[in-house]
Amino acid sequence: MSTVQKLGDAFERRGERAKLALMAGPGVSWLLALILAPTAFLVMVSFAEINSSYDIVWSFSVSNYTELFVGESGPFTTPFIDSFLLSLGIAAATTVATVVLAYPVAYLLTLLSGRRFKIVLFAVLVPFFTIFIVRIYSWLAFFGQSGLINSFLLSLGIVSEPVGLFEYGLAPVIISLTHAFFPYMLLTLYSSLEGIDYGVIEASRDLGATRLEIAKDVVVPLSAQGLITGCVFVFVPALGTFITPQFLARGKFTMIAEVLTARINELYAINYGAAGSLFLIIPTLIAFAIVMRTTSLEAMG
Amino acid sequence: MADSEGHGRLSRLVGEPGLAGTVPVDRVVSAIASYGMWALTIGIIVFLWLPLSLIVVLSFMESSVLFPFEGVTLANYVSLFTNASLLGAARQSAIVATTSAAVATLIGVPLGFAIARRTFRGRSVLRGLVILPLLMPGIIMGISLLILFRVIGFSPGFFGTVLAHSVYGLPFIVLPVTARLAVFDRKLEEGARDLGADRSGVLKDVTLPIISPAIAAGFVFAWLRSFEDFIRVFFVGGTMDALTKEMYGMVVYSQGTEAMDPMATLIVVVVASALAVAINLRDILEYV
Q: Given A45, A261, A301, which is nearest B179 (Cβ)?
């Protein structure tokens, strides 16, 4: 190869590089500057201290973490631990509820076509696209001592005093989160179920498998990828939700996002808030790793 | 075989003798399963629509509870359209959403092309990173950006929110664009080249028209996500108005919710009609 050709190739490569930098550069810098850098900085701040004029003092300390875990009556008795465990429980209950409700509907959607498919899809998607805060707010009137459910039961004489279950607290939070996140689960399950070759199901039926066996041994394993992705996309946002308990728990308990917000906004304890944030960052990273392992990105479009 | 035994037992239960009975039994089971699925689906649709319909009904009610019934009124709508701060906040949220979705589109489309069409080091890491804004809880994004902004002396407000929302909206652009490009028949581009079109001509007349539905769907998603976000704008929005902040204040500090039901009703109506059009126009599930 002549020197001139080599030079030409080098220029072309450089041109390609420049083009690539121009295409991917802005997006990459957005992700670096607005996602990765702030998160890394947050982790750093969680090991720093705050002085009386609210400046960050860079001295390595784990006091923010001990403050999270060790309460006045011993370790693991802090309100933070309670909120974290409660949030995990609420997120888990929401995930299970969406799976149980979404599987049959997703399966039904794969069997439908034409008008019926469009109608069911429309019915499911409208609540999904109605903004989140409205979806949570829409449950407000149902609950509470004088909420719709309790006053209905009272007026029918079924109960003689308001039922605690229908007052603000755990049940409304889980029900409204299930309502809000159901479509995520449905859509991811639907797209993985739709990809299943129906011939496989027919073949297992011909070989004598019962419906239950087909569901257990064929449909669920083949849609496992969608199931896992769906669970991640319900569990993580449910874990970090702020508006839902604010609207529907009404101070009966606090979820982790409320603890963090209160610390940062009212007390400006950003070091404490940063340490607490780690308990949402770690689940996010685990979820990220799971999604990376199970999902091809083309399938996510 | 356990399976055929199972069938046999079922057959005996419904009084069909032997093998000949397996077909009707399976049909019965099929019918039950199918009715069950329909019943459940309809039940879930009712569950999904019940609270939203209640809001619509309440928006026309004299009192903010159904019982006792005090009559129908348009007063709530009057209080919505005379609530300047709520309307102003809605307008501001729409401006933020439009700007953020536009920024996300401008940087997301080329990024999608780079990921789908180029080979370079770190490409698989990058395609993974793209979904991170989607997965990361809003409160983490809000807190981390707030702290970083404070430290570098960048004050929260409109630009901070647009930055946060544009990276939040990035996956909604990049994922559909890469998905669309992955199934794109490149022979179309080659054909256009062979027929004498230059690079920009191919891009403008062949490639972009084919992927533009994906971009449009992504823009809508990014717009909606920005418009409905509360927690990010709560942290990085500073004193800027936002519809969700206004609604949050109404509910939590009980600043009177008369305007809330009609506002929510308008949102439901707009979403429902836009979606009805979109579903009839094309298969939008592709882009979800």
A: A301
